[in-house]
Amino acid sequence: MADRQVRTACLWVADLPLAALLRAEPDLLDAPVAVTNAADRRAAVVAATPAALRQGVIVGMTAIQAESLVSGLILRPVSGAQVRSAQAALVDVACSFSPRVALESGGEVCLDLSGLGHLFASERKLAAALAAGTDRLGLAARVGIASTPFAALLAARTSDGIWVVPAGEEAAFLSPLPVSLLEASADLHAALRRFGIESLGQLAALPSRGLGRRLGAAGLRLWRLARGEDPRPLVAEQFPERFMEESDTSYPIGQAEPLLLLLQGICARLAERLNWRGLTARRLFFSLGLDPQGCDERSLDLASSSCTARTWLEVIRLDLQEHPPRAAVTSIRVEAEPAPARRDQLDLFAPAGPDPASLDDIVARLAALSGEDRVGSPRPVDSHLPDAYTLVPFGQDRGATAVVSRQAWDQQIFLRAVRPPAQVQVTQKQSRPVRLDSQRFRGRVCQLAGPWRLDGSWWDPKRLNRDYFEIELSDGGIYRLFRERETNHWFIDGICG
User: Residues near 16 by Cβ (< 8 Å), separated by ≥ 6?
Assistant: First the structure.
């Protein structure tokens, strides 16, 4: 695919309100469903599933008429929240291919294909990749490619899936299409019908001067579009890195199980969008619309960035259990604060380790179950108290790692802590241990160093008052032993080796 001139692709979803509903509730795909323009039995049907159309539902009839034709018809009003989420998913797909993307007034998404000629063998393969991306995010979008945004839009609308208009053949492609595809006022369309104009080719064949006198500037604009000329350039928008999924509930939800079921679908769709962009979430924001009015907004920090819907749902579930909403829920919005996905540097000679994304997911789930303050990497603190430490979230405080030679490593002696300290029976002689007896530690003391007294925290009921020894037993093991002076109990709290 060569970049000889500016080419434009258009992603268009037929019956977007219905497609957005089926994306949120895929179980309704084979059911008779009609979408109305309002939550009223007298509202008009704007879209319907094939199962409903086969049984006689027609777009434009009222909800009462549709129900009289189809037994068990499911009626749903247009959900602005679901439509916005579907449009955002289309934008995510487009932005993953090109930085120049525009969201048009009709809900379609256009993108500039400049610079993509070296990545795809042909424009048709590029269109297939765009269609596959929308399918992955739950939307069956049609893709059109042409030299102008208008021609690309009509190519998408008139295709069954993919339509590529070769460069310079836009006028020939547009010629047989009906003029009803043009966006114009009802009076302008009525005037074209009076002139007997039914196709774009007939409109393009009219002389511009006479058409301008009769239909004015609006008529000339339609004439240029019919000829394959689109004076309006693609105006790219700067879309914020904001990943949000919304949904309205069919009825106020006051129970935890149906609410979590809706949240499960929302989290799954949001996670798929982040995966498509190669991102994860470090923080979740979710908002619950309450009945009859009001809003419950929450922010949840993840112990480690994650892109797994199951982990998010567990975090949200625990938060809802601890702080249930004060009223029934009528709408849900979940937003993720994006973060780059962590990559692992592979070793040429060592086997591959665990996937960093899987490790992040496990850390986030552990934090959801046990609390964020109980998951992290231990760090020593400046204190005279033994075992004093703090937890640092994973991924932070990554200082330089000291390089230790093999010889220096072999000469070091390490202390492996025993947690909790193991109580032992000690035989003493002149206040010094000479033998240990316990189920785990048993033997005669061969070598002894100490005692070192540690005294502190006099203001605490559990004050620190210990005598520490380092001992070698007859079994060859080296241990750290201490005695609680208040109770005269002895403990092993470390093994050297």
Answer: 83, 86, 87, 107
> What CATH number matches the domain at 247-345+354-399, 3.40.50.300, 3.30.1490.100, 3.40.50.2300, 3.20.20.70?
3.30.1490.100
Q: Distance between CA 90 and CA 313 in Å, rounded?
A: 24
Return the percent helix, strand and coil in the chain, to nearest 5. Answer: 35, 30, 35
**pLDDT value of position 2:** 44
pLDDT of 411 over the 60 cut = no
What are 150's two structure tokens?
């208008």
- Residue at 437: amino acid letter: D
Reference 336, options 394, 284, 384; nearest CA is 284
Q: Which residue has the tokens 């005294």?
A: 455
Distance of CA 240 to the CA centre of its chain: 15
Tokens of 486: 């208040």
DSSP 124: H
Whole-angstrom distance, CA of residue 320 vs CA of residue 300: 11
Comparing C-alpha atoms, which of 99, 120, 118, 111 is closest to residue 146? 111
Quick one: residue 371, left, alpha or beta (phi over 0 = left, psi -120 to 50 = alpha)? left
* Alpha helices, DSSP H, located in 371-451: 406-411
Tell me the H-state helices in 59-205.
63-69, 80-95, 123-136, 149-157, 170-174, 186-194, 200-204
| CATH number corresponding to 8-164 | 3.40.1170.60
**Which residues are CB-neighbours of 132 under 8 A, at least 6 positions away?**
none
Distance from C-alpha of 166 to C-alpha of 7, rounded to nearest angstrom: 10
Topology adopted by domain 175-226: DNA polymerase; domain 1 (1.10.150)
What's the token pair of residue 93?
């797909």
Tens digits of residue pLDDT in 91-139: 999 999 999 999 988 889 999 998 887 889 899 999 999 999 999 999 9
Q: How confident is the model at residue 328 (pLDDT cuts 50, 70, 90)?
A: very high
Angle at 399 between CA 396 and CA 401, to 5 degrees: 130
Q: What is the Cα–Cα distance from 491 to 424, expressed in whole angstroms?
A: 6
Could you tell me which of 380, 491, 373 has the C-alpha nearest to residue 440? Answer: 491
How many C-beta neighbours within 10 Å does residue 406 have? 7
Q: Sort strands 74-77 and 33-36 into parallel, antiparallel or unpaired.
A: parallel
